[in-house]
Amino acid sequence: MVRRPASHNANIDDKFHCFSVNAITIAEAGTVEKVNVAEKFKEIEDYWNPRIVGELNGQQVKLVRLKGEFVWHHHENEDEMFLVVKGKFRIEFHDRQVWLNEGEFIVVPRNVEHRPVAEEDAHVLLFEPASTLNTGNVRNERTRDRLHTL
Ligand code: NI
15 C-alpha vs ligand 1 centroid, how far in Å? Predict the structure, then answer.
């Protein structure tokens, strides 16, 4: 959306308008493509291995399939959003657990210890800073330092 600053001076307003139009070129707009989440999930066959499908403002949109128990961990600097696209899973905290069904999401704040558990295959969209390591403060066989982009 193009915001135009309020102004009593038509000339200044016109200048801002021209600037805004020039800022979004046709060439750049032509590279903007939609993402079909279900189609992307068809390319994912393994579990606990997030793929990057979008980036904005230093954050990444990732898709991951969950099955089984993950590792207890926390993230010192990042809040993590989990949105269930298909199936269901739960996030365990030390004092409770939260089941997430299709269409539901949760934001796990930084420094909060958590463990995702999926009894059956769950398709989950993650939205979090690009710096987020999947296993947080823990390093083990599930750690994925470099994520692939789909
Ligand atoms: Ni986490």
Answer: 46
Q: Which two tokens stand for residue 2?
A: 């193009």
pLDDT band of residue 20 (cuts 50, 70, 90) is low
DSSP secondary-structure letter at 27? H
How far away, in angstroms, is 34 Cα from ligand 1 center? 27
Q: Which residues surround ligand 1, an ion (CB under 5 A)?
A: 80
113 Cα: distance to centroid of ligand 1 (angstroms): 8
pLDDT at res. 21? 58
**Segments of 1-150 assigned E as strands:** 51-56, 59-69, 80-86, 89-92, 97-100, 105-108, 115-129
The least confident of 15-19, 72-76, 143-147 is 15-19
Q: How far is the centre of ligand 1, averaged over its atoms, from the C-alpha of 46 (Å)?
A: 18
Identify the CATH assignment for 37-129 out of 2.60.120.10, 3.90.1150.10, 3.40.50.620, 2.30.30.100.
2.60.120.10
Q: What is the pLDDT of residues 75-93, one digit of tens each?
A: 999 999 999 999 999 999 9
